[in-house]
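Dear Dr. V.,

Thank you for agreeing to look over these. As mentioned in my earlier message, I'm a first-year student in the group and I'm still getting used to reading structure tokens, so any feedback on how I've presented them would be very welcome. I ran two proteins. I've put each sequence directly above its structure. The first is here:
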Amino acid sequence: MPIKIDSKLTPKKIVPQIKRMFELSAQKILSIEKSWKPAQGTPVFTVKGKYSSRGWTEWTQGFQYGSALLQFDAMGDERFLEIGRRGTVKHMTTHVSHIGVHDHGFNNVSTYGNLLRLMREGKIPHNEGEKNFYELALKVSGAVQAARWTKLADGTGFIHSFNGPHSLFVDTVRSCRSLALAHQLGHVLMGEQDAKISLLQRLVEHLLNTARYSIYYGAGRDAYDVRGRTAHEAIFNTASGVFRCPNSQQGYSPFSTWARGLTWTICGFAEQLEFCSAFGSRRRKGADSGSCSETVRLFTSAATIFEKAAIATADFYLNNSCADGVPMWDTGAPNLYRLPANYLHKPADPFNKFEPVDSSAAAIAAQGLIRLGNYLNASGDKKAAAKYRQAGLSVARTVFSEPYLSTDSKHQGLLLHAVYHQPNGWDYIAPGQSVPNGESSMWGDYHLRELALLILREARGEVYPTFFGGVLTKL
């Protein structure tokens, strides 16, 4: 495989890089907090080193304030807790009830979810009123997300993207955390005639249909069926509920693989496997009664498919990224043929003249690979666990280093060489360059911090961070 995996790398060996990263991170969060005017909208990506907005949907504000909460979690500086908490209360309310997007897990789990997790872990003082506020926000968010429902011919369905009821986006896998949390907090979606709609059921159905329609397994589905490849968008006939074709919004084509969509899939399924495993642990301890027992049964039947999807996409990532773990933005980008024939066997070159890399995809993938490895290790598959876990640590070491780590105090971004929307030409191209590079994205910066926190907590022997941290103990 092109990625060079360091089998001896440990979390403790990466700690010095992580501490340096968080030192730089603090400066950048404070810079954005000082200069950003909410009337400008939501910060999305940098132009000439300064964060700018780009209206498509408002899906990145949770990363802005969630980053401050991760900074507090890692370093204990209460200035960042205040920034994250104040920003969440003041600016995130409309995101909770936003009926027009599929991004609730990005916005609301990154803010309200992190605050609730920190409280349940004892990192911030318990306050019953605050706790109830965070829980209510997460309950409503999960239900609103689940209400974006398209029913298919077989009676199941999926959460449709902001494009409309015909559209299943592969990246929604990671946003499904909102449904999981809301369900665990005891919430349901209420429908016509007071019908109680299970958020868990919709979570499982969406994940299963993503695994079925958005991920390829080398089974001859079409002429471009390569195991582990993903399609950004799956299109359905809404009148009949039948699948029609793959598509792509941010990738190059329906028949190539957009790197960031691939990595959302790896990370999202790995997290849901951890969620499944947590329920299994409760069952073994005799704690599965009532709704928890129902949850265990549902997840047990689906976990094998989730694992198959996670492993296939992880393998595809390892085989189609550069040697240092950073991918090109799309595996079928039209000018890749102009790169050296063996470019995947060398470290990625973000300054090449032909196609951009996407460091944000690398940060997302690294976390997913580590979580997948940890899950497989707990399941007893030690060999596979070591491969994915060590691959994740190896990619992490890359993105915590230059030229990806932004060390310029005047640059508001943290993770350099991320791209947003190459087909639309939204990314800034600097003078003298022919492709986007040197800029950052709000999601890339957030996921770099989230990755760092995951590794740092293990190195310190602290509680393993999950999106459902502390919530499973409630029911």
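The second protein is here, in the same arrangement:
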Amino acid sequence: MDEFSYAHRDTSYAGGLNKPNIPEELQRIREEAFASEIPVAADDTLCFLMAQAAAVRPESILELGTAVGTTSIAMAFACPQARITTVERDRAFYEAALVNFGKCGISGRVTAVCGDAGEVIERLEDPFDLIFMDCAKVQYIKYLPRLKQLLRNGGVLIADDVLLYGWASGEAEVPKKRKMLARHIREYIDAVTSDPELFTCIIKAGDGVALSVKR
């Protein structure tokens, strides 16, 4: 789990207009997570993720950073045809996610893995139509080459929290203890926006989302 949480910041760039169309059970899970300061996606990030997933219509989704399963459930709701592989290194989060998958009736469509994302992706073989990365931010740049290999041509890679309070964009001064984190995220942004194999845009949803499409 990251050292700090993105769960409770008001990061809406649409004046609160983005409200995810999700089942009541999932909303209850999200509200409990927010109340417990568990890092789950804000409304505008979840809306963006679900809209992209619905547009791509993926058959296979890879998620790095399950937390308690809210984004997996949301993507499963948006894409009834999709199977999801989701990876979480925190045992307590992993076990909570399994319970939540059962509550929302998607356990049969989700393969949940408890382990280090970097190690797990090296073992995966099947290509994915959509990859959502919301794990340790300092690892994004390290994971990128392998994730490109796992992504189908025409597939979409979404990386969450890439603007980091304005640190990565230079809009805000970076605290001394966060300089390495900001540098690694900046390296990731530079890599995906200059990669000839990717079309990328950076979007102000939540703490920033990088959307990359593999050519």
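From my reading of the second output: The chain has seven helices and seven strands. The longest helix spans residues 179-194. Does that match how you would interpret it?

Kind regards,
E.
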